[in-house]
Each structure stands twice: as C-alpha cells, then as structure tokens.
Write a structure and sequence with these properties.
Layout (H helix, E strand, L loop, with lengths): L11 H10 L6 H16 L4 H12 L7 E9 L19 H15 L3 E9 L3 E4 L1 H10 L10 H12 L4 E7 L14 H9 L8 E10 L3 E3 L9 E4 L4 E10 H11 L6 E5 L7 E5 L7 E4 L14 E6 L6 E8 L5 H4 L1 H7 E5 L5 E7 L2 H4 L10 E7 L7 E8 L5 H4 L1 E2 L9 E2 L1 H9 L7 E11 L2
Parallel strand pairs: 1-2, 1-4, 12-20, 18-19
Antiparallel strand pairs: 2-3, 4-8, 5-8, 5-9, 6-7, 10-13, 11-12, 13-16, 14-17, 15-16, 17-20
Helix pairs in contact: 4-5, 6-7, 7-13
C-alpha cells in the first residue's frame, strides 16, 4: 500500500476544525470521569469545597517573612532562684543554668533573627544586654523580684511586644499564685483575657516547651498557705519556654532554635506546610493494584497520589504504604506513639483503614528506592473496591500531648516535677488562638482499575 506524502489542500480546513474540537488527548468517557472525580473530591467528604480550599491553602508554601526580632524575657522572681543559685565552691551548677545559657548564646549568634533583645522580668521587663542576662543565669539572681503575675506578664507582651515578624520567648516556672485565692478557679479566663487584651490576633500562636532541672534554693508553692520550703529540693522541678508571636514567626523560630527532642512540647495555633508524601508501590504492598496517576510512568517516584484497585476482598485484601516526610515538623508530631494514636484515615464508599504507622529504619534510609526519602510510613488496608474515583485523606489530629496532664497538680505543697494548674494555664492559651484541629491533611484518590 502506498502512503501519501502530503495532505490535499482541500482537507486542511477540515483537519483544522477537527483539531480545535478535540479536547486534548481525552475521550468523552475520560472527560466525564474527571468531572465526576472533581465533584466527589470537593463534595463527598465533610466540609465539601471549603475543606478542599483549606487543604490547598495548607499545601501552598507560607509567605515567609524574615524574623525581624526576638525578645527573650527571663523571670527573676524568688521562685526562680533555685534554678539559678550562686556558683558553688566546687563550681557545680544546675541543668537550668547549662541549658538556658546555651540557648541564650544560640539566640545571640543566630543569623535567623535580625534583632535580639534581652530582658530581666520582674514586675515588668527591664532591658539587659546578652552578656548581663547570661551572667545572671550563670552567677545567680542578685535582686530577685517579690512576685511575677503571669496574666500581667502576658498582657504586657501582647500590648507592647507583639508585632509581625517578632517572637517573644518567656522563660519561667509559670507558677500562677494570685494574691486572691478566689481567682484560682478563673485561671483559664485570666490567661485568655491577657492574651487577647490587645484585641483578637487571628495569627497568634504559642509553642510551649517543658524542661526539668535540679533545684537548689527556696521553694515557693502556688498555694501560699502551705508555706515556702527552704533548702529545696531532692526532686527535679519544671520550667518552661513559651514562644509567643504570629504563627509564621513562631514556626520559623522553633525550627531554627528549638529542635531539642528531649524537651516536652505543645503547640497552639502554629500552621505547618503540608509535608511531602507519596504512595509506594514496591514497599510492603499486597494485593492487586497499581498507580493510577496520569502519566504515572513519567512521574517522580515520590509523588504518587492515585491508587487503582483491580480487585479486593476479605480473602484478598489490598494493602499499600504512603511514605511521609515529617522532618520539618516539631518532634511532638514525629513521635511514633503520637502518630499511631492520632493519624487517621477518612474516606467514603470503601472500608479503607489505617493498618499501622512505622518510622524509617537504617535499612529504609540506606535504600536506593523511593522509601529512603521518607521519615515515616502509613500502611492502608481495604477489602472493598470503590464504585468510582473516591477521595481518601490522611489526617494528623492536633491533640494536646499526654505529658501536660502528667505534669499538672492541684496541690504543689510538696515539691515534685509538676506545675500547679498547668492544664488550666494551657486551656486559657488554647482558647486564645485559632482552632487547628489537624496538623496536616494529605489527599489521595482510590479508584477501580480501568
């Protein structure tokens, strides 16, 4: 058979019209299926199109404004003297002195923040140089304040120091001891009022870091009637950093300067970019399924989002693993126990469930396969093929960590590694920030094989 080497001029207009009418490389069934998928992704899950819009916003990188300033405020009331005792004859110091001195040095040297300011916190903040504040930590408090009122301190921070691109780090034992014992039932309300005194801040965020230290001095309980205790203590006493500022500034500061995984953490109002994730087809998978992404063979090996299922049943279940790169999240959200309890699957028209969460091992990190790029792995199991394309979302719920309740006491008369009414303090803090029920949401698609 002979093939023409050129088209007849009479056919060119017809060909042009045909090309204009062709919708890319899709058939009508492809177009119909894509339209159906779009409707399902926006409308089937709770929240509908708003949920999709929120997910898209989370995926987009946050507008990164450089950190303009950090204000570090160190409480120097009498209850803090035991953390910063005068240097002993043998040169012994406390873990507080070692840790806080190192932190101040890192803040002073970091290029992440343009301006650094340091304050002694008494009845109000008093500006100090880095050298003077570090010297107080090392050598002890010279003139301790009589008392520091937590709500008043927070009120001052919000009215005088809360600015875009600025974080305020408050170092304190956070012993709330109101002069009037009748105010104790209103701790949550007092903290909320103090943080909102300057008007509601839509982007307010607070990261709380908890530490313990040996303590050599006079112990002042919140319940004044129980009496102070000299020459204390035989047990460790807690102290905290509260990092307060706009969400983006707090997130940047945390990532740059507070990466100590030994610290207890709780984060309120901080928004994190969506982590990298992908379905992995050659890692602990089971059953009959394959990548359903358009142009799957040409995609990067760490960006698959669609699972096409050939068959699934109770006798022949499908299992696939989603790799998660959580290295840019705080340690609290990378803890395996936290993930196992709070990572959830949401879907419709399938019985997909989370079958387990594991952390990367030396073997996965050293692999030449795509799993080497991820810090954690979520295995999903299902026995029911969806009738059409259906959304599946992996969500990490934002829950208060268990240590907060463990470190809380209603009576601090006996020294212990607990803080009076800590849960109530954080209740007030949480009520002051925007609701963040999830840390991240990772959308995937399940569909029947074509």
């Amino acid at each position: 058979m002979r093939y023409p080497t050129s088209l007849s001029p009479r056919l060119l207009p017809i060909l042009g019209l045909v090309l204009l009418l062709l919708p890319g490389c899709y058939s009508r069934s492809d177009i119909k299926q894509e339209q159906e998928t779009a409707v399902e992704m926006t409308d089937v899950l709770p929240g509908g199109s708003k949920q999709k819009a929120a997910a898209a916003a989370a995926a987009a990188p946050a507008a990164t404004q450089p950190l303009q300033r950090v204000n570090v405020l160190l409480e120097v009331s009498g209850s803090m003297e035991g953390f910063m005792p005068k240097t002993a004859a043998n040169g012994q110091n406390t873990r507080f002195q070692q840790q806080v001195a190192q932190f101040l040095s890192e803040v002073n040297r970091t290029p992440t923040v343009q301006q650094k300011s340091f304050f002694l916190l008494k009845e109000k903040p008093y500006a100090e140089s880095y050298a003077a504040l570090s010297g107080t930590v090392r050598a002890g408090i010279r003139q301790p304040a009589k008392s520091t009122d937590v709500p008043a301190v927070l009120d001052t921070l919000m009215t005088r120091y809360y600015q875009p691109g600025t974080v305020n780090v408050l170092i304190s034992d956070f012993i709330y001891s109101p002069k009037n014992a009748g105010a104790i039932p209103y701790i949550k309300t007092d903290i909320t009022d103090a943080l909102q005194r300057n008007g509601a801040q839509a982007d307010l965020a607070v990261s709380v870091y908890g530490f313990t230290s040996d303590f050599r001095g006079t112990y002042y309980p919140a319940l004044v009637a129980t009496g102070k205790k000299a020459n204390c203590c035989d047990t460790d006493i807690p102290y905290y950093y509260w990092v307060i500022g706009p969400s983006n500034a707090v997130r940047q500061f945390d990532a740059a300067l507070l990466t100590d995984e030994a610290a207890r953490q709780a984060h309120f109002g901080v928004v994190y970019p969506r982590p990298a994730y992908s379905v992995l087809d050659k890692f602990e998978n089971q059953g009959s399924w394959y990548y359903g992404d358009a142009g799957a063979s040409k995609r990067a090996a760490d960006s698959y989002r669609v699972v096409s299922i050939s068959e699934a049943s109770a006798q022949q279940p499908v299992e696939f693993v989603v790799g998660l790169d959580l290295q840019n999240l705080p340690a609290q959200y990378r803890e395996l126990a936290y993930l196992q309890q709070n990572l959830k699957v949401q879907t419709v028209d399938t019985d997909a469930k989370l079958a387990g969460v594991t952390a990367a091992t030396a073997q996965t990190r050293g692999s030449s396969s795509p799993q080497s790029r991820f810090t954690h792995f979520a295995k999903i199991r299902l026995t029911k093929v969806p009738p059409a394309s259906r959304p599946l979302v992996l969500k990490l719920q934002n829950q208060r960590p268990a240590w907060v309740a463990q470190w809380t006491t209603k009576n601090d008369a006996v020294p212990a590694a607990k803080t009076f009414a800590l849960s109530s303090l954080l209740d007030g803090l949480q009520a002051s920030v925007g609701s963040r029920p999830t840390v991240f949401e990772l959308p995937l698609t399940l569909q029947p094989a074509r």
